Amino acid sequence: MDKKGSILKKLKSDSKVGIIGGEVTNHLKNTLYLFKILFRSIFRYFEIASRNSWSRLRKISN
Fold first, then answer.
1. CB proximity list for 19: less than 8 A, separation 6 or greater
2. pTM of the model
3. What Cα–Cα distance (Å) separates residue 46 from each residue in 16, 41, 42, 49, 53?
4. How far is 35 from 17, CA to CA, in rounded Å?
5. Model pLDDT for residues 3-48, shown as the tens digit of each residue
C-alpha cells in the first residue's frame, strides 16, 4: 500500500502531461520488450534452421 500511495502522490504532483507521458513511455517500454523477445525467438529459429540446412548441404556434398 505504501508504494501505491507514493505513486499516487507522484502522479498528483506531476502535471497531466507528465502523467500521460509516463504512461506512454511505460507502454513503449513494454512493447519494445515484447518485440525484443519476438525478435530473439525469430533469430534463434533462423539460426537453428540455417545450421540444419548447412549440415544438410555438407552431407549432400560429402
1. 11
2. 0.43
3. 45, 9, 6, 5, 10
4. 27
5. 666 766 665 665 566 666 677 788 888 898 999 999 999 988 888 8
